[in-house]
């Protein structure tokens, strides 16, 4: 992306909006999938919903490509938009936490302390979280509301339609 294209992204908008995403979402935004362009944006911040999404991306997908991280964010936001799941980002991420084998996101119930030890990785996922909460298009996961890594083969995956693969994550939607 050239400088003119980068300027049109209004990076100040990426930083200032901290409206929680509900079923209706936030205004339309732009999707950045290029790591260098994302790196050039100023650090992102936000409220509780932003923090929940950024932490989920960090603990679930920080080793993935930008597209892989965005696809994980899409799953979370697709769940927020679905009546089958809680209607806030934090609600979706924390669903089932505290109940053995019932959590939706492994890091919330794996017994390991959540420490952000890679500031550059958190900066990147923070920008992705901000971009997605600002209403960037959700077109990388194929409408998925579920995902898992290739390291596991959960039984539920056979029940759903696979919609995408990004890195080591496979994405699924209800048929």
TrEMBL record:
GO terms for molecular function: hydrolase activity. Gene3D superfamilies: Cell wall hydrolase SleB, domain 1. It comes from the Bacteria. Residues 63-172 form the Cell wall hydrolase SleB domain. It holds the Pfam family Hydrolase_2. This is Cell wall hydrolase SleB domain-containing protein. It comes from Litoreibacter arenae DSM 19593.
